[in-house]
Request: fold
Amino acid sequence: MQKYSFWSLLRRSLSAHRGWKPAFTDASLKPHYEVVIIGGGGHGLATAYYLAKRYGARSVAVLERAWIGSGNSGRNTQVTRSNYFYPESCAFYDHSLKLYESLGRELNFNVMLSQRGVLGLAHSEHELEMVRRWANAIVMNGIDAVMLTREEIRRRVPIINLDTHYPIVGGFIQERGGISRHDAVVWSYARGASALGVDIVQNCEVHDFLRSGDRITGVETSQGRVRAEHVVLSVAGHSSVLAARAGLALPITTMALQAMVTEPVKPVLDTVVVSPTIHAYVSQSDRGEIVMGAGADGYTSYAQRGGIPQLRATIAAVVELFPCFSRLRLMRQWAGAVDITPDTSPIMGLTPLTGLYINCGFGTGGYKAIPAGGETMAYTIANGKPHPLIKPFSLERFARGALIDEGAAAGVAH
Ligand SMILES: Cc1cc2nc3c(=O)[nH]c(=O)nc-3n(C[C@H](O)[C@H](O)[C@H](O)COP(=O)(O)OP(=O)(O)OC[C@H]3O[C@@H](n4cnc5c(N)ncnc54)[C@H](O)[C@@H]3O)c2cc1C
Reply:
């Protein structure tokens, strides 16, 4: 792998940037692999990387129907935090945040992690009580969370309008939360995996599974048949459709979640602001764009574009919170097909079919989980049993009723 450093950048810039090698190899499909991972998003690529890095797997392929990062991993708003409510979620997401904190060094790629703080707002005394309960739960799980008064919020975010139609009465902040660069995360895992011998095959759509009784033995793709000992389903919003081909019914609803950015402006907002009541969340990217998101469209959809009503509601909410943004022009709007479970927690680990593993159900919040998702899935495949951190997120929890209902703590999306 070509090493990126200050000196290599300087040297290349003096020679008109000639001589850079491609970050990863666009591989051709082979007829057999030990592990086939379906889906070249962050989770699929991270799983491949950790399988090769930690467990020495040398016969791994990531099959992506379009280009890597073309799904939700390249479409999200990049919020990275671990301020969840339940101990199971706190443990998993905080492990992920810790991996993010050293990811740039591990992968020799600047993932632009900016721990600028994620501020959650409360718009009534009742909501403030709930927020206090939430912040206490986070602290009891060993994660940072600090309550802020209205005055402290004013000082922290001077451009915010505290007198929205439900006035802001306080909130809490996770200082270690923030944003990172989603394309960099996808590309750094792809580069790391490729350097360790993983085949990344783009434009390769998986249509069906090969099976022998209750064992999955490979996949049927647009480029031909591939046999494999282990097959991993890591396709986010398309999970239920593809799992149905293997005869598995997943408790997943797929909806379009949209986001949008304004034209770039000078730095005005150095905190991620989340308002579940006014119903929007906002940050400013390193390029200066104001990045905005809110709820998912209220109907099932596999389209990677959102509807006008949600777009209008998001902009109205953002402008109410930040009246000064009303003068900015909207530059881009897009959406991704998100995979939402009944308890808004992911589904990870083994399936009833031998040789088939699953990683999905992250819905609107799986970007922050990419490092831990990849690491724990690699462990699960290598050891044939679920990693302790993902044991509570098994598919069979829905049969047992052991739900981890993170609905209230899952941001503003639903
Ligand atoms: C607008 C928006 C904002 C979001 N904001 C945040 C946020 O701020 N913070 C956060 O933590 N999360 C956020 N998320 C959620 C997050 O983006 C996802 O949970 C995460 O990226 C899922 O990663 P993944 O690798 O599982 O899926 P994806 O990145 O979607 O990758 C799945 C891949 O599978 C491929 N695929 C599908 N079917 C097939 C097939 N049959 N054969 C081969 N390949 C196939 C797709 O092309 C895709 O590339 C947001 C999502 C959206 C849409």
Summary: The chain has a mean pLDDT of 96. The radius of gyration is 21 Å.
